[in-house]
Design a protein that fits this description.
The structure is a homodimer. By secondary structure, chain A is α/β, with parallel strands linked by helices. The structure holds a DNA duplex (30 and 30 nucleotides).
DNA sequence: TGAAACGATTACAATATGGTAACATAAAAA
DNA sequence: TTTTTATGTTACCATATTGTAATCGTTTCA
């Protein structure tokens, strides 16, 4: 799963760095800005999941800036950060399209928790993609793309390829595969695996140019 | 548009009344409880859009109660209200499925703003249509338009199509559908789904030209 | 080098799964 | 009440999938 990206506008350089440090430690991508300059362009070019905006910015008021972005279709969640904490200002922030409001000095742990809670609500969960070379297996949609070209697999072939990718650094014995893909190793024979592997190979690589699956003599199969 | 309904669990009776008063003044329906007793039953029977929960409840810990509800499938947003404000407790609240955390004594205006912001994110707008290709599902009016032509669906067919559209990027197993559309997966058989899908298909695409619904052999159904 | 063991490939048959129509029953409408 | 509608079940047929066996090719090792 790819990382969430958080765009931050904060004019105090030290604070921006500190915030970016903590967010990156939590596994987020960050895009830091010291002013609203270039932010719009960045939003057009990058996929951004959330914004953290200081209201006190040089030359612009953070919540007004966000309000103008909202008018242009910004849909991502926004957390306002500010030293101001009078009722009036909090209200303005929410009315101009804020999703949360944190006042300085803020507790970093709390801010991180708020970010996490809001992202959980606003960013739709990505489908789990299993990747291997130019293969991309979408477990939800039950879809395989080979070099971004859709290829149809049967349930057995799909499960087999998934097991191979999930264990891409091991050689899988026929017994292991019978246990994990067929679920009943005693009922079938080793040859069954051979044939299934073969069918899978011919679907994901009909011209036999790419050699995804290698057989290890006397041991089993593995991705190579 | 119908009112949003907010369920409140707060053991201080005065505070509960005050909160209900303000929420009602803002146009919300409220369901007040002095303890966790009967809350589960109420959630089963009433449509609730959000919960406000005090963490300090007689005989139960609010966030533990919410965590247990989440396990049973509660999906609505929860705001915790509490006098506690140590980091540790805020963290617990978020980890147990809270969407926001407000400490007493709280500013009523701010709480109302937070409620509004969260509802805007979590409750799908009633008037929005669910769209898929030339299908348009109006959840309020319980109406389907196919290429702007009205088509009548039964409740079951409607729920089925809604579930398919809401999960348009996933293959849905018959069990998933029995759970989510029929609500009682154990009572019915897989074939029931086949027949229902079939009836739905013939209503939305009687000439079988458009192929909205695809069956994935051995897995389930999906929109294509 | 040659035999044995193992893997690849192909064809075929059995099985599992899905589609469809007909029927039965329960719920809603008239 | 009678009639209509909705929906679960069953039966039967069509088709996709997949195990098996037969055959051919390749590797291993004496």
């Amino acid at each position: 799963m790819s990382k969430h990206t958080i765009l931050i506008i904060e004019d105090e350089e030290d604070l921006l760095e500190l915030l970016e440090y903590h967010l990156q430690k939590e596994g987020y991508e960050t895009l830091g800005f010291l002013s609203t300059k270039n932010v719009e362009k960045c939003l057009e070019e990058e996929r951004v999941d959330m914004l953290i905006v200081d209201r006190n910015l040089p030359g612009a008021e953070g919540s007004e800036f966000v309000a103008s972005l909202r008018k242009k279709g910004l849909n991502q969640a926004v957390i306002f950060v500010t030293a101001k904490n009078s009722d009036m200002n909090i209200e303005e922030g929410f009315l101009r399209g804020g999703d949360d409001y944190v006042t300085k000095p803020y507790n970093m742990k709390e801010l991180l928790l708020r970010i996490k809670a809001i992202l959980a609500r606003t960013v739709p969960e990505k489908n789990t993609l299993l990747l291997y070379r130019d293969l991309s297996l979408d477990l939800e949609a039950h879809l395989l793309h080979v070099d971004s070209l859709a290829v149809e697999l049967t349930k057995l072939e799909f499960d087999l390829l998934r097991t191979l990718i999930e264990n891409k650094n091991s050689v899988l014995s026929r017994n292991f595969l019978l246990e994990n893909v067929w679920k009943n190793e005693e009922f079938f024979q080793d040859k069954t695996v051979n044939v299934a592997i073969n069918r899978l190979k011919s679907k994901i690589d009909p011209t036999k140019e790419k050699e995804y699956i290698k057989s290890i003599w006397g041991v089993g199969y593995t991705l190579c």
